[in-house]
Amino acid sequence: LTQSVWLEFLNCAQLGKFRGIDKHLAENLDAWRPIYDSVTPESDPLPAPWESKLNSLQKLLVLRCLRPDKCVPAIQIYVQGQIGKRFIEPPPFDLGAAFSDSNPSLPLIFILSPGADPVNGLLIYAESAGMSDRLDYISLGQGQGPKAEKLIKEGKDKGRWVLLMNCHLYVSWMSSLEKEVEDIVPDKTDSNFRLWLTSMPSPKFPVSVLQNGVKMTNEPPKGLRANLRTAFAAVDDTKFEATNKANEWRKIMFGLLLFHAVILERRKFGALGWNIGYDFTDGDRDMVIKQTEMLVNDYPIIPYRVITELTSEVNYGGRVTDKFDRRLIATLILGFANTDVETVGYKFSPAGVYRSIESGGEGVDGAALKQQYLDYLEALPVNAAPEIFGLHQNADITCAQNETYGMLATILSLQPRASSGGGKSRDELLDELAADILSKTPNAFNLEQVSDKYPTLYTESMNTVLQQECIRYNKVLNKVLGSLKDIRKALKGEVVMTQELEERGTSLFNNQVPAMWAKVASPSLKPLAAWVPDLLKRITFI
After folding, report:
1. What pTM, to 2 d.p., does this model score?
2. Beta 214-217 vs 194-199: how paired, if at all?
């Protein structure tokens, strides 16, 4: 076991229900090893007597100690068992529900996120609402203000929809936008008028518009299955019967949609997935589907070489700037667009979880064909194995651990600040912790004494390094000592508790290294309890 895992068990053993779990682990290594080595430890039983002794939430704590990389799927299983499956699956984006909450004086605001393009969804919705020929749109930028104002005026008079894209790129016009929205008088405005806005999160966006508007965000769905479900939900029913080779076309379309989901999800593996994290969009995917449909329809023999070249080199390749990433995407596409894809049961990965399926039948229409694919997607696992991405199963470990620690840090940041069950209050515990670290931390080095004792001579290069290290660690010591003293004074009411002090106190209380300390210290992933002794050892060494 690594030292960090063993420390987790020692801490866990201090909780009432877990007394003795550290000794049990040390004395029964063979019983615990299978869980440590398991591919699916979240569903494996714990060694006796812990399997029967602990409830499902307490078992999550044991998994957190032994296999933090599997905490997220384990929590999904827990949530599903406690309150239902729908709480672990993102709902499909429903533009109609947002529209029903709006009126002419309330703008509808799309908050953009990387990889998501809501405009195509809006165009489709406008068509279904009979407003496609009464929708005007413009991308904001320098000099576009008068045009936007003219569109809004015409829209109010004639009952048209107006879409202003990328508000964050035209900061200087935002005050005019605020005035335009304030000037909308419902009684003098056509009831069909709607103002749609798209913007990245920006501090310059008018607060009053944001507060009064109907806000929507459509982040790319997390996970391969969720991504595929969203993509298929957006595909028009007629696409499943398109081309003169409809049976082959459906399988090719599924392969290309799966490919899009795979290259998006590879980003979560960091440098293992892509050298540079690319924001592939829904627009890229839609263009691939549109072009491939034409190629399948127009040629007697399906030109897979043309499809793969267009997809990897043109449609996605335009974004891919790293030469090794270009080679990767050109190789990846070959597994998702080839003649074998037309065969029912073709495996897109060795395990065969993702495969070409049989669809169709006597008198089956586009809606029913689409439903057949949606039913198949429903049966796929929530968390995809790394093999579908062309990676070894160990590739998942690092990114899964980071995801767990990120999620737990978020949970910690949301916990209540006040104690309600008796015992010491948060402020008392924080004051004790600050006093404890203060008592252990030495004062800063006296640089004059160091310089006198170890002068920087040409023959003594190590003295130069020593002085540089003393200067660096003085910065750390001054920050640590100064902020701890300020926190203690603020807790007593001797100085004002500023937001910065509050954040540092919260970090200390959550056993996290305050960002201000980490910024000036040597790089470390240790929690506070291990970081402080490590700092003291380094200073002792110097």
Report:
1. 0.66
2. unpaired
